[in-house]
Amino acid sequence: MKLALHWKIIIGLLLGIIWAAISSFLGWSEFTLNWIDPFGKIFINLLKMIAIPLVLFSIIKGVADLKDIAKLGKVGFKTLGMYLITTVFAVGLGLTLVNILQPGKTLPQEQLVENRIKYELWAQENDIPLADDKVFLTDEKYKDQVLLATEKYQKDKISNAADESLQKKKNTASSQADQRPLQFLVDIVPTNIFGALTDTTNMLQVIFFGILFGISLLLIPLDSSEPVNKLVGGINDVFLMMVDIIMRASPYFVFALLAGNFSELAKDDPLKLWDTLSSLLTYSGVVLLGLGIMIFIVYPFLMIYITKKNGTPMKYGSFFKRISPAQFLAFSTSSSAATLPVTIECVRDRIGVSKEVTSFVLPIGATVNMDGTSLYQAVAAIFLAQIHMIDLSMGAQLEIMLLAIMASIGSAAVPSAGIVMLMIVLTSVGLNAEWVVMIFAVDRILDMCRTVVNVTGDATVSTIIASSENELNIVDEAIIDRAE
């Protein structure tokens, strides 16, 4: 029996995790990192290699094929509106769950008090007012814990100062936080398009140039634009074929990628692997609950309701079957940008969204639609406040909500970019940016899961936009099965 692609990817994913556990137990981690992990890195490089040119030519083709400038504005407005609505809902959901379930308050009381004292020491040292009116440092009742916490705080300070990766993230967060309010608009316009094409973090600049190029094609005479349109269409088809070729080998690449990632975490200590997966269980559970609600309830509800209203109903289970290759790849790579070529293929060839809508909506989504990242930032910020016995006001939480929404636009579509944006969120509400080290252990796993949410949201919005524009022609499942 011929297995469908998404089942092959699942098998590769599971075998990669199992191999990492076995190699850790048997002391083979070095072998895995030397001889298996490189193929996973090759896979990421292949996807990133085609991501930017595919976005550029897809955007140009999508805009040029719309033919009507008014329609372009209408589709653009709908796209940004839908992405904003889902992001606001995601952040609101995260804040609601973390305030109701309060994962940070499940720590033992002694640990909470110790964390609180370290927070007060940090605030005192940096001349930052406390977020509330509690004071433990001068309370005789906590004298012994103050001494112990002070000693640990000094050790943490030395450790964090020596952590190069943390300092690099702090510097990045600081530079972004110091920018003027409209700096992101300045950054969208490239000074050198060829420079922008060499870095996946400049995706918004590529999209801007692609839209401007496409609009210009619409405005010049047909005899001048037609040859360019044919060239762009042909190049776009070549890159889509590259996606198809890479996807045929994706199950093997996914195995190598997961085996390498988990071997890097565990090395030759099986308990370290287990600790990495099991620590911060309550916090991780709240994040995963929120992400699960977005994937399995919010997106399907929006998609089913709107497509049914527009006369092109999509079934619940069928939707997930059609986008599953992109979802599993998003989990494996933790990168919306790397997954974008496959997302485009799934939405266009497996759902039936038109090339015009797919080419326009998805590249924008991979850059500005980070619902999973926004939800995680809201939960993480409140969780870190809770474990330091800080009761953030409603105003501070609304500020976190606004910053998380803005950060979703600023976050690069690459692994762990959310950590940098979280540091900005923490600093903005008077909390210590270095607290992110407390969630490093589980961040990689959660990053994989929130990328699935980001990609699912992109696919949902593109399906909704296509349905509203009569650009959705749902592909028969039998055709998909034959293609696999």
Structure description:
- This protein has helices spanning 5-26, 29-35, 37-66, 69-101, 109-125, 143-162, 164-177, 183-188, 193-196, 203-219, 222-248, 250-266, 270-278, 281-309, 316-333, 336-351, 355-368, 371-386, 394-410, 417-428, 440-468, 477-483.
- α7 (164-177) crosses α20 (417-428).
- The chain is 79% helix and 0% strand.
- It is globular, with a radius of gyration of 24 Å.
- It contains 22 helices and no strands.
- It has one domain: Sodium:dicarboxylate symporter (Proton glutamate symport protein).
- The chain has 484 residues and is mainly α.
- The model is unreliable at 275-279 (pLDDT under 50).
Give keywords.
single chain; 484 residues; mainly alpha; Proton glutamate symport protein; 22 helices
What layout of secondary structure does this protein have?
Elements lengths: L4 H22 L2 H7 L1 H30 L2 H33 L7 H17 L17 H20 L1 H14 L5 H6 L4 H4 L6 H17 L2 H27 L1 H17 L3 H9 L2 H29 L6 H18 L2 H16 L3 H14 L2 H16 L7 H17 L6 H12 L11 H29 L8 H7 L1
Helix pairs in contact: 1-12, 1-15, 2-12, 3-10, 3-11, 3-12, 3-16, 3-17, 4-14, 4-17, 4-18, 4-19, 4-21, 5-6, 7-20, 12-13, 14-18, 14-21, 15-16, 15-21, 16-17, 16-21, 17-21, 18-19, 18-20, 18-21, 19-20
Per CATH, the superfamily is Sodium:dicarboxylate symporter
Strand fraction: under 5%
| Main sheet record | none
Q: At the third CATH level, what is the topology name?
A: Proton glutamate symport protein
Rounded mean pLDDT is: 81
Task: State the end-to-end distance.
Answer: 12 Å
- Number of separate domains: 1
Helix content: over 70%
| Overall geometry | globular
Helices, by number, come to 22
Protein structure class: mainly alpha
Task: Give me the oligomer status.
Answer: single chain
